[in-house]
From TrEMBL:
Transmembrane portions of the chain: 86-104, 203-223, 235-256, 262-279, 291-319
One Pfam family matching this protein: DUF3667
Domain of life of the native organism: Bacteria
Keyword entries, A-Z: Membrane, Transmembrane, Transmembrane helix
Name listed for the protein in its UniProt record: DUF3667 domain-containing protein
Transmembrane is among the record's keywords: yes
Length: 320
């Protein structure tokens, strides 16, 4: 049987409780300590992911105008009152990338243009025979310009499957070269618009998996300020705010296109101010220390984020 460290009053609504109460009779929150586990966080997320109830609307005010208050409330045990942090992050990131796709909606040219490198020239019969009869083989990748021209021609002017196109290149059979070449041929069949849309859909997933690393950095720099799970919740709220601000600036950019070039800078500046205030309220430290720690965390995180995004995009293309 699960052991609970019970309280005399509900941490969420303040209702007085008896020892027999495993759940609050007023709001339904479990009567246990305020140290939420990762398992409980995930269970609460999966139990109500698809329902946008009053908790979602109730979370906006502290989230927007009181940086850090939503994190403090959740860490103090008021979990039923506000939206689950994982659910909150996913909904806001979906909102952001939806508007991002609208701002960078592909042109007719993008929808027609293929992604391969090089000019799409229709080869004469003599040029085709010359390229097709290349006798030199190589186990290196990427393949030569002549081989790229041959691939482009076969994609546009034949119905050959990828395997047959690969055979015409006459590459030496090494598994790395074969995998990379076939994947390149597969990607070459796609339009610029479809490939960009695919990569754009992967970015929120990639960033979601780096959130625990940011939480670890928070734990490292504020190591006396609670368990790791509390820093993870804070990390979810901070990333949610960045995507929320960025999303609304993208919306404005839909109507005022000159803003497109400054979207990232404006969102970053607003988020930096927000994070400093949030650090002060969550970790109870002086402004100067919050700024210094934010700078160091940001520097490390920017490097890790860049590496993770690069690896994530490469992995996404490998699985394409």
């Amino acid at each position: 049987m699960k052991k609970r460290r019970k309280h005399k009053a509900c941490l969420n609504c303040g209702e007085l409780l008896q020892q027999k109460h495993n759940y609050c009779p007023n709001c339904g929150q479990e009567n246990t300590d305020n140290h939420v586990s990762i398992g409980l966080l995930l269970r609460e997320f999966t139990s109500n992911f698809f329902s946008l109830d009053s908790r979602f609307g109730r979370s906006f005010k502290p989230f927007l105008i009181r940086p850090g208050d939503l994190t403090n409330a959740f860490n103090q045990g008021r979990r039923v009152l506000y939206a689950n942090p994982i659910r909150w992050y996913l909904v806001i990131s979906i909102f952001h990338f939806f508007f991002l796709s609208k701002v960078f909606e592909p042109t007719i040219k993008d929808k027609q243009q293929r992604t391969f490198i090089g000019e799409d020239l229709e080869l004469s019969e003599a040029e085709f025979d010359s390229l097709y009869n290349i006798t030199d083989t190589t186990d290196s990748w990427p393949f030569s310009n002549e081989q790229q021209k041959l691939v482009n021609h076969l994609i546009n002017h034949s119905s050959l499957p990828d395997e047959k196109i690969y055979d015409t290149l006459k590459l030496e059979r090494s598994w790395i070269s074969e995998f990379a070449t076939k994947k390149s041929i597969r990607i070459s069949r796609e339009t610029t618009a479809s490939l960009n849309a695919y990569i754009l859909r992967q970015i929120p997933i990639i960033i979601f998996f780096i959130l625990p690393i940011y939480a670890f950095l928070l734990k490292l720099f504020f190591w006396r300020k609670g368990l790791y799970i509390k820093h993870l919740i804070h990390s979810l709220h901070l990333h949610s705010f960045f995507f929320f601000v960025l999303g609304w600036i993208w919306v404005i950019a839909l109507f005022y296109t000159p803003l497109k070039d400054s979207v990232g800078s404006i969102a970053s500046l607003i988020t930096i101010i927000y994070i400093v205030i949030s650090f002060k309220r969550v970790y109870q430290q002086k402004t100067i220390w919050c700024i210094l720690k934010l700078f160091m965390i940001g520097l490390i995180y920017a490097i890790l984020l860049g590496i993770t995004l690069l690896l994530g995009v490469l992995l996404s293309l490998a699985l394409f």
